[in-house]
Amino acid sequence: MTELRQRVAHEPDAPPEDKESESEAKLDGETASDSESRAEPAPPPASVDDTPEVLNRALSNLSSRWKNWWVRGILTLAMIAFFFIIIYLGPMVLMIIVMCVQIKCFHEIITIGYNVYHSYDLPWFRTLSWYFLLCVNYFFYGETVTDYFFTLVQREEPLRILSKYHRFISFTLYLTGFCMFVLSLVKKHYRLQFYMFGWTHVTLLIVVTQSHLVIHNLFEGMIWFIVPISCVICNDIMAYMFGFFFGRTPLIKLSPKKTWEGFIGGFFATVVFGLLLSYVMSGYRCFVCPVEYNNDTNSFTVDCEPSDLFRLQEYNIPGVIQSVIGWKTVRMYPFQIHSVALSTFASLIGPFGGFFASGFKRAFKIKDFANTIPGHGGIMDRFDCQYLMATFVNVYIASFIRGPNPSKLIQQFLTLRPDQQLHIFNTLRSHLVDKGMLTAATEDE
Amino acid sequence: MLFYIDDRYGDLDSRTDSDIPEIPPSLDRTPEILKKALSGLSSRWKNWWIRGILTLTMISLFFLIIYMGSFMLMLLVLSIQVKCFHEIITIGYRVYRSYDLPWFRTLSWYFLLCVNYFFYGETVADYFATFVQREEQLQFLIRYHRFISFALYLAGFCMFVLSLVKKHYRLQFYMFAWTHVTLLITVTQSHLVIQNLFEGMIWFLVPISSVICNDITAYLFGFFFGRTPLIKLSPKKTWEGFIGGFFSTVVFGFTAAYVLSKYQYFVCPVEYRSDVNSFVTECEPSELFRLQSYSLPPFLKAVLRRETVSLYPFQIHSIALSTFASLIGPFGGFFASGFKRAFKIKDFANTIPGHGGIMDRFDCQYLMATFVHVYITSFIRGPNPSRVLQQLLVLQPEQQLNIYKTLKTHLTEKGILQPTLKV
């Protein structure tokens, strides 16, 4: 959104307050060459315009401002359509897409680091960055595979060994990278190398952990993946619309184009959207059921008895609303209540992820993370507000929705010693008897 | 000519190391009494004596705290963690001259508090399960622990975003990243150390002593026999010191493991007893800590003229730990040396006269704690039984019933549970 207005500001009738963004825009091309001598008088070349030719031709007769608007709009619709297609294709494709997005975001941020520090020539460093990405992904995917594909893993002997010593193997791989880094330190470039090392690790922390939490959420049920992401997208679009039509009071100095009207309007619109969307989706098993790996068919299945969250229940409307709507009770899915919490987070805290990314771009004098998507910037530009959402959903699910994974517990139980197993079994038994779930009669079944 | 808004920060990034001015050294903190006692010696021997005396002091302090028990050790680990964090953050402030940044010191300490709260909360939930079950408020805190920690962290994150000031964006992002990497290094390590400690004090003592021993013996071997330089990063280290240190550390670890394995105090997992409201280390020592006979391979048989030898199985593990301490531990030291050279500092701080800061002493320990933890979880023990139980009790009743039936079948098959016995 900010980028669009900045491009608009280049026109002759640009208000004077955009001077800073103008000078920033001029400086963009300088970023890659800031330490070299200032002998080059020529202005830096503009970034390559990625807009496909077909769009360029179709929109060639419109003015520059509307052309940008149309490009953005068309790309937005294209991305949303793409999103629907991959949802249709199923969990496996979604996982692959998440992984590709993660790799692209990592690449974008690391490239910015290289540009900032002019460290393309540093020995080994690109190899090391990708190696660390591989290690951390191996660690996380290994943990996920061990949890969710438990039976498959137990069957194959090599997989069993890999999973048993998984932490040790991952640690060894990481250590190798660490030692290679230490051995690659070159005398005059210590500081640069440490900066890139730190940069890589912080990027891994941000990008890789998020993507794995997204996949965990996905396994919980596709609705836990779709509703949060759609809420963030909706909030983005709604806040922009409300700001466009009603915006007056600026929200934060960091993003001068954002307004309080957009913020609050976006909040209410997103909550309503979340309620509607979850109502629609809760009806379908394919969205609501946890993703499971079926050993017999060797594929993912989403078939189950929907849990309590996804069964219609009657709720009494509080007196205040009763008089307004004229109904006594309403039938809702309990999940819709949770969706209010998710939408609230998406509208109130999600934007902080966006402010963080704006601050980052201003700090390093870049306009966009990259130029992958015409009109929008890089992949990271689209996903900056999603940043905190995935973690929140994961923590929310772990705290309020489900307890620990039962099959994982059984797996852990089986690795204990017999006396420990017996002790736990007896404690569980007395607990169940106390609760009345187990009586002496049912004991013998 | 075009300028940056934050020109000085741009220079910070892009200049080569030689252009960066050196940070002036901090004050000398050697106590007066030592100075007077050693005033007669030349400068070189004086430094040697100061280092020696401080080394012995630190080792004695270490023994004293071991004697005082696990709780004191935990407090010590926590203080060291806080001091290391403080040292590294102070270096960041000096490098970036960012003392005046609004909010930043508060935010760094706040993040430290959050991450510690998260980790200690997880530990407390695991190890103090019985204590926790009694108190209602604690139950609530434990159940929603992750959510509360995340909310606390988020509050810090939002405060950071709100505190971004126009001309200092880059600096603020640097300090944010610096803080997070420091937290990643120091706080996770210290909690892995405490997890190792709970496994049994021997898992805490043998690794740390192996690293210290490697430090000292590599130095001595290098001093007397050193000739071939090891790595450009630390020109004083030599191959002779490295290899000599390796062998001595393995022997030391082997011997220390033998001595410590006899005592229940060191060998038993630390448990919290609610009745006495303190930590106890009493148990039936596991198989690792019971003498077993091993038949010697033929070449050793000829040398030692014995058929078998009684060893604790733990001693075999101690060889793995000592090997790691001697071969990979030094990389932590090289990493810290590189870091000091990169930022043109001689020592992390001046806390310990003759040695530098706390971080200088603990740089080789950096990787050791993680290795020991990974080693224990992979090769020694399975998951923590009380944690499994705690998670079982949190499940839905129907799930508990299902698990109960599965377990019952499993245990009956294995013969652990007699089908006719009503326990």
Automatic annotation (TrEMBL), chain A:
InterPro entries named among the record's database cross-references: PC_trans (IPR000374), PC_Trfase_euk (IPR016720)
Highest taxon listed in the record's lineage: Eukaryota
Amino acid composition bias (Basic and acidic residues), ranges on this chain: 1-39
EC number(s) on file: 2.7.7.41
Subcellular location(s) per record: Membrane
Pfam families linked: CTP_transf_1
Sequence segments annotated as region (Disordered): 1-52
GO biological process: CDP-diacylglycerol biosynthetic process; lipid droplet formation
GO CC term, one of those recorded: endoplasmic reticulum membrane
Transmembrane segments: 69-89, 95-117, 124-141, 168-186, 193-215, 221-247, 259-281, 337-357
Function: Catalyzes the conversion of phosphatidic acid (PA) to CDP-diacylglycerol (CDP-DAG), an essential intermediate in the synthesis of phosphatidylglycerol, cardiolipin and phosphatidylinositol.
Name of this protein: Phosphatidate cytidylyltransferase
Organism: Prolemur simus (Greater bamboo lemur)
Organism lineage string: Eukaryota, Metazoa, Chordata, Craniata, Vertebrata
From TrEMBL, chain B:
The entry's keywords: Lipid biosynthesis, Lipid metabolism, Membrane, Nucleotidyltransferase, Phospholipid biosynthesis, Phospholipid metabolism, Transferase, Transmembrane, Transmembrane helix
Topology relative to the membrane: Multi-pass membrane protein
InterPro entries: PC_trans, PC_Trfase_euk
GO molecular function: phosphatidate cytidylyltransferase activity
Membrane keyword on record: yes
Top EC category: transferase
This enzyme's EC code(s): 2.7.7.41
Location within or outside the cell: Membrane
UniProt-listed PROSITE patterns: CDS
Reaction catalyzed: 1,2-di-(9Z-octadecenoyl)-sn-glycero-3-phosphate + CTP + H(+) = 1,2-di-(9Z-octadecenoyl)-sn-glycero-3-cytidine-5'-diphosphate + diphosphate; 1-octadecanoyl-2-(4Z,7Z,10Z,13Z,16Z,19Z-docosahexaenoyl)-sn-glycero-3-phosphate + CTP + H(+) = 1-octadecanoyl-2-(4Z,7Z,10Z,13Z,16Z,19Z-docosahexaenoyl)-sn-glycero-3-cytidine-5'-diphosphate + diphosphate; 1-hexadecanoyl-2-(5Z,8Z,11Z,14Z-eicosatetraenoyl)-sn-glycero-3-phosphate + CTP + H(+) = 1-hexadecanoyl-2-(5Z,8Z,11Z,14Z-eicosatetraenoyl)-sn-glycero-3-cytidine-5'-diphosphate + diphosphate; 1-octadecanoyl-2-(9Z,12Z-octadecadienoyl)-sn-glycero-3-phosphate + CTP + H(+) = 1-octadecanoyl-2-(9Z,12Z-octadecadienoyl)-sn-glycero-3-cytidine-5'-diphosphate + diphosphate
Single GO biological process annotation from the record: CDP-diacylglycerol biosynthetic process
Regions crossing the membrane: 48-80, 101-120, 140-162, 174-194, 200-226, 238-260, 314-336
Metabolic or biological pathway, per its Swiss-Prot or TrEMBL entry: Phospholipid metabolism; CDP-diacylglycerol biosynthesis; CDP-diacylglycerol from sn-glycerol 3-phosphate: step 3/3; Lipid metabolism
Coarse class of the protein's main subcellular location: membrane
A single GO cellular-component term on record: endoplasmic reticulum membrane
Role this protein plays: Catalyzes the conversion of phosphatidic acid (PA) to CDP-diacylglycerol (CDP-DAG), an essential intermediate in the synthesis of phosphatidylglycerol, cardiolipin and phosphatidylinositol.
Family that this chain belongs to: Belongs to the CDS family.
Designated name of the protein: Phosphatidate cytidylyltransferase
Lineage of the organism: Eukaryota, Metazoa, Chordata, Craniata, Vertebrata
